[in-house]
Write a structure and sequence with these properties.
Largest sheet: 9 strands, mixed
Low-confidence stretches: none
Bound molecules: 1,4-dihydronicotinamide adenine dinucleotide
Radius of gyration: 20 Å
Strand content: 15-25%
Strand order of the largest sheet: 13-12-11-10-6-9-8-7-14
Shape: globular
Structural class: alpha/beta
Distance between the termini: 42 Å
């Protein structure tokens, strides 16, 4: 099969998420790395792209140059990944969609709900794929969890409880470090700190596994390090359209927790538990039955989980391969087999609506607030 051509914006040398995209996009041979504008410093970006094997004429100094350079090429890229800081996502994603490129945008997709709605409209109008990198949803055992819920193996879902709480910003003495401080500064981060950074992964995961949407929420935000304007800890209660009760805790000051992302789903006839630090196991307890460990790669998994299990049972598959699963779903979707597990612009928009609803709710001492994007009400 002919390889698809892939380009990336951001994700330059030393960036946090760049390596996971490169490992993910190239893992299965679906894509070749053909173009990039990798750094906010033009020359560093050009030089790094060439060190990674990109031809000099496709190692761009910035994204506008890349758009102009790729637009009219017969062999232009089939997919553009946007892995720049948050405030740039909207402008870059919109411009590439409008020029007829498929896009994988990092989360959060936009800064405002209006921008999110605009991306949904542009993606629909152009017919191009706009995916959002909720990569945790692509772990095989998360796909298994969703398939079990869809197949009714847990009965009606009563309750979902999730947390994404780490302790990496818990050092008060380091709070003024510029690499930490911007995340809690509205001028750089937008309206929300920790909830927009990590909480939306957990909220997306709840919607993804329960196959349901968040209707309303009530939020309590705290800046436990007092110099922070935006929250470093949040507790969010929510309700889903199908009646499921949701509880979400996200924190960056939970010292001792490392990655700290987990989810439990409780239905009328069983419960499930998954944690990102043990991603190959899904813990399942049927009503009145014994607790079981379902392993990635074992016989009898649902098809989506089986498809995305690469190496044999008990060999760990980690974060870059979850990102690779997003790229597999993208490659299939670009080639015409649309994968419904792929997080899309609609998911990015729902996250933005939830962020803004949570900010509004927290300002009103937790008043229940509509979390649906206006275009889906
Ligand atoms: P970072 O600060 O480590 O790296 C950002 C990179 O983008 C740098 O190489 C920088 O030079 C480059 N850059 C900045 N502005 C640019 C521009 N206008 N054009 C081209 N390149 C530009 O940031 P990090 O942590 O890698 O985050 C990037 C994005 O990825 C953020 O939106 C973040 O929320 C998201 N992210 C997502 C994760 C996930 O699990 N899906 C995990 C970590 C980050």
């Amino acid at each position: 099969m002919t390889k698809l051509k892939w380009g990336m914006i951001g994700g330059g040398e030393g960036s946090q998420i760049g390596p996971a995209h490169r490992l993910g996009a190239l893992a299965d041979g679906h894509f070749e790395f053909a173009a990039g504008a990798l750094d906010h410093r033009a020359e560093e970006g050009r030089a790094y792209a060439q060190r990674l094997g990109i031809a000099a004429d496709r190692a761009y100094g910035d994204w506008t140059e890349m758009l102009a350079g790729e637009k009219n090429r017969a062999d232009r890229v089939d997919l553009v990944t946007v892995a720049t800081p948050n405030a740039t996502h909207f402008e870059i994603t919109k411009a590439f969609l409008e020029a007829g490129f498929n896009v994988l945008c990092e989360k959060p997709m936009t800064m405002t709900v209006e921008e999110g709605e605009e991306i949904v409209r542009v993606a629909a109008a152009t017919g191009k794929i706009c995916a959002v990198n909720y990569c945790y949803s692509a772990y095989p055992m998360v796909r298994q969890a969703r398939a079990m819920v869809r197949a009714g193996e847990l009965g009606k879902i009563r309750l979902v409880v999730t947390s994404f709480s780490h302790g990496h910003h818990g050092d008060g003495a380091n709070a003024d470090n510029p690499r930490v401080r911007w995340r809690y500064d509205p001028a750089m981060a937008g309206v929300s700190g920790q909830f927009a950074d990590c909480g939306i992964h957990a909220l997306h995961m709840a919607s993804f596994i329960c196959d349901d949407t968040v209707e309303k929420l009530s939020a309590d935000f705290a800046s436990t390090i007092s110099s922070r304007v935006l929250e470093d800890d949040a507790m969010v209660n929510f309700r889903m359209a199908g009646g499921t009760v949701g509880r979400l805790w996200t924190s960056s000051v939970a010292i001792g927790r490392q990655h700290g992302f987990d989810i439990q789903v409780f239905g009328e006839t069983g419960g499930l538990r998954w944690a990102s630090e043990q991603p190959n196991q899904l813990i399942y307890t049927p009503l009145n039955g014994r607790t079981q460990i379902i392993e990635k790669g074992e016989a009898g998994l649902h098809a989506d989980a089986q498809r995305l299990s690469r190496v044999s049972i008990a060999h760990p598959e980690g974060f870059p391969l979850a990102v690779a699963n997003i790229y597999c779903d993208l490659a299939d979707s670009i080639r015409g087999e649309l994968r419904d597990g792929l997080p899309r612009a609609r998911d990015g928009l729902c996250s933005m609506a939830a962020v803004h609803a949570a900010v509004a709710s927290a300002a009103l001492d937790g008043a229940w607030t509509d979390a649906r994007p206006p275009m889906f009400r």
